[in-house]
Amino acid sequence: FFLCVEVARASRAAAKSCRERARRTYPAPLCLMQHFQKPENALRRADELYAVGQKEPALVALHDVLSSKRHRTWQPMMEEVMKRFLTICVEMRRGKASKDGLIQYRIICQQMNVNSLEAVLRHFMQLAHEGAQAALELAEKTISDKVANLLDFDDLEAEETPESLMLATIGGSADSKKRTDRLLVTPALKFLWEAYRTVLDILRNNSKLEELYRDTAAKAFEFCKTYKRAVEFRRLCEILRNHIHSQTKVDPKWKDREPPTPEALQVHLETRFGQLATAVEMELWQEAYRTVEDVHALTLLMKKPPKPSSMASYHAQLAQVFWVAGNGLFHAYSLTRSYATAKSLKAAPSEAELTAPSEAE
Predict the structure, then answer these.
(1) For the chain, where are the E strands, in sequence order?
(2) Mean pLDDT of the chain
(3) How many CB atoms lie within 10 A of CB 335?
(4) How far is CA 110 from its chain centroid?
(5) Structure confidence by residue, pLDDT tens digits, 252-284
(6) Residue 195 burial by CB count (10 A; 0-12/13-18/19+): exposed, middle or buried?
(7) Residue 88: exposed, middle, or buried by beta-carbon count in 10 A (0-12, 13-18, 19+)?
(8) Distance of CA 249 to the CA centre of its chain
(9) Which has the closest alpha carbon to 19: 7, 32, 9?
(10) Residue 34, class by beta-carbon neighbours within 10 Å (0-12 exposed, 13-18 middle, 19+ buried)?
(11) Separation CA 56–CA 68 (nearest Å)
């Protein structure tokens, strides 16, 4: 009897823990499940709720379809449901809900239609980018200032403290720019940053969407360069470094896992070339040096030599890193390697491109 009582008590505690976890991940209305026989019914119901301003119940209806086991078979209507779900998430800036929905949709279409997952992820990034642009334009109109002057905050992932909120409240008109940053600019850029991180996390072990992984990393690099996000760039480099480490490390628990293909290693190498170019342009020389180490480690894993066109530009960037470090010998050697590699191609580098690092100093 006492054993049964303890088991029942443990079961109630586990159920309560699950409810609390769901309540922290989603808003309260999203924890209430609805059930639809067909995805069309959920999409129609979500459109009706959205039309009258009920965005939370609309998310409930769409999330139920994505997480229901009876809708695990992909069909064209599921893509429409997912896009509508992401549209509402972007408008409400629900990063955790959008990531959970994308994970559910990856399970649905991973085996049957990977192209649909690619289309949905590109749609998600486009929506997040358009939302950030709209927020920046609104901020410019609000305080009549340029976008470049609105990007002087340090960390997108830093949490607001009670002290900062109190000071911003009593700061008066002199702190109107900081309030605009907190209300308009920071949330939009933070959601765009989370969108890129979410897509990279969804694609990190997907060998069928390696091109999309590279394109997403390139967009994230452009985001860091455009909005001067040095902190986020360092985190992005660490994320990419962990992804390739998880794919190449030897783990006895995953004996049946296949190693990365030569094509996958080439994609990762090209991503590191873009990372190095961004680090050089942002003058983050320590991160550029770490990226050079990553490139060297990847070339050791590759059975085929990298593309000569990529290596020519890589050696030119490497020459600039050595020039800034004051190492003239390695700078000259890198320029020689860049010139020799480019000479074998149809389009040889110009003299201005080779002497640019020296003239810049």
Answers:
(1) none
(2) 78
(3) 23
(4) 19
(5) 555 556 667 778 888 888 899 999 999 999 989
(6) buried
(7) buried
(8) 23
(9) 32
(10) middle
(11) 18
